[in-house]
Specification:
3% strand, globular, 367 residues, mainly alpha, 68% helix, single chain, two-stranded antiparallel sheet
Length: 367
């Protein structure tokens, strides 16, 4: 097929997708669009974009020259760690968060060379068709159990107490993963939709970067096929409009693999650490990235990996000592043996069904 016909086909697909979206909103017999809903969506999008721009500027300033995904996700990881320190000292409030956002955005003053994504008409058609349901999901009230009781609850607690809940050694809320501090920061500026919209924007940048990598490594059709394969997976697509940690961990893992292939060891170490901090199940991807490095660079890379492993081990040893002292299982307080006569009160969090007594969902369960 000639390039002209390919462009024409993509443009027609984009127009058809746009017409479908317009029809859905204009012909809906029970429209949910109202001035209040529009203002809520605009505020949420603004809150998400503030941290997208701040993270990209910070990451671009650190890297100097980078892809949009590299700058965005490096800056996101650094900001997540920095905001944890802000919460640790009890200064997690609007003015302090605003100062952090402004300081990170100053990275743009260094004029980093950031490669912006390029989409043809067919790509925009895919964005419209797949992004519209995810956008509606992001703007709708949360219904997912994990999102309600963890990924939105922990950021809300951070904002409510302006710091870590229960002290540094308190389970869960005192050790938020990096994305939770970013979700809390976005929520501070944009309300409840902001974390979900932030996650959706991360997914869009990550998917486009995956498409570019596939085209660069395997040829033009491979990247688009990889992105469409993910979009066709329910496991992937259902999380696009949710505030979760699975996809950010996957994007950090992807960037770690890319850095390993390119031989950029410092970036590999940074992205690998961010992926593991976001979700321990990213470990197989991190191991694969280091295997690529060791295979391509011999003993020098192997020695570097040993030093990095020592650093990761020291960080994890702190949690190990805490669990050992409390007789907890190393994987968390919900796993392992409880000493005889020492029951542990766990908060049983379940989504109440219609007609249920709210009190039964607030009582601790002795185990």
């Amino acid at each position: 097929m000639s390039p002209h016909r390919e462009r024409l086909g993509g443009q027609l697909a984009a127009l058809a997708a746009l017409a479908l979206l317009v029809a859905v909103f204009t012909l809906d017999p029970t429209p949910a669009v109202s001035p209040d809903a529009i203002l809520r969506a605009a505020r949420g999008l603004a809150g998400a974009l503030i941290w997208i721009l701040a993270a990209t500027g910070l990451g671009g300033a650190i890297l100097g020259s980078s892809s949009l995904a590299g700058a965005l996700f490096l800056g996101t990881g650094v900001l997540g760690l920095g905001l944890f320190g802000l919460a640790w000292v009890g200064l997690f409030s609007g003015p302090a968060l605003g100062g952090v956002a402004v300081a990170a955005s100053c990275g743009w003053l260094l004029r980093p060379k950031i490669e912006l994504p390029k989409l043809d008409a067919a790509g925009w058609a895919v964005v419209l068709v797949c992004g519209a349901p995810a956008l509606i999901n992001a703007l709708a009230p949360p219904t997912d159990t994990d999102e309600i009781y963890q990924h939105l609850a922990i950021p809300s607690q951070l904002l409510h107490v302006r710091g870590l809940l229960g002290g540094l050694l308190h389970p869960d809320a005192s050790r938020p993963i990096p994305v939770h501090t970013l979700y809390a920061a976005a929520m501070s500026f944009g309300g409840e939709p902001a974390p979900k919209l932030l996650h959706l924007l991360w997914a869009a940048v990550g998917l486009n970067h995956l498409r570019g990598l596939g085209d660069r490594w395997l040829g033009a059709p491979a990247g688009g096929a990889a992105a469409l394969t993910l979009l066709g997976s329910y496991t992937f697509a259902r999380e696009l409009g949710l505030a979760y940690n699975n996809l950010p961990a996957a994007w950090w893992g992807l960037l770690a693999v890319e850095a390993a292939v390119a031989g950029r060891r410092k970036e590999l170490a940074a992205f690998a650490g961010m992926a593991l901090a976001c979700k321990y199940t990213a470990a197989p991807v991190v191991v694969a990235a280091y295997l690529i490095t060791w295979h391509g660079h011999g003993q020098g890379a192997s020695g570097l990996g040993e030093h990095q492993s020592d650093g990761v081990g020291e960080a994890l040893a702190v949690l190990g000592l805490r669990f050992a002292r409390a007789a907890d299982h190393p994987l968390g307080v919900d796993v392992g043996h409880v000493p005889p006569g020492q029951g542990r009160v766990l908060q049983k969090k379940q989504a109440p069904h219609p007609g249920a007594d709210p009190e039964e969902h607030d009582d601790g369960e002795q185990t």
